[in-house]
Amino acid sequence: MDVQRELDTRGLNCPLPILKAKKALAEMLSGELLRVVATDPGSMRDFQAFARQTGNELVAQETRADEFIHVLRRR
């Protein structure tokens, strides 16, 4: 997957990973991919809701050990 930007939100709790992702997406071009790495387990459902509400596509989500990875495509 060709990700244009990566955001490290490890150690941050809701709503900070979402807020940082929103800011990063605002600086990106339509169609570009953003990968967000988080440690907050709630980020799985938070990013699903964020994608539904904003129209940005949630391309992938995965869990690796204690990290949660979200890939969003800018609308």
From TrEMBL:
It comes from the Bacteria. It comes from Pelomonas aquatica. PANTHER family: SULFUR CARRIER PROTEIN YEDF-RELATED (PTHR33279). InterPro entries: TusA-like (IPR001455), TusA-like_sf (IPR036868). This is Sulfurtransferase TusA family protein. Residues 7-31 form the UPF0033 domain. CDD domains: SirA_YedF_YeeD (cd00291). Belongs to the sulfur carrier protein TusA family. Pfam families: TusA (PF01206).
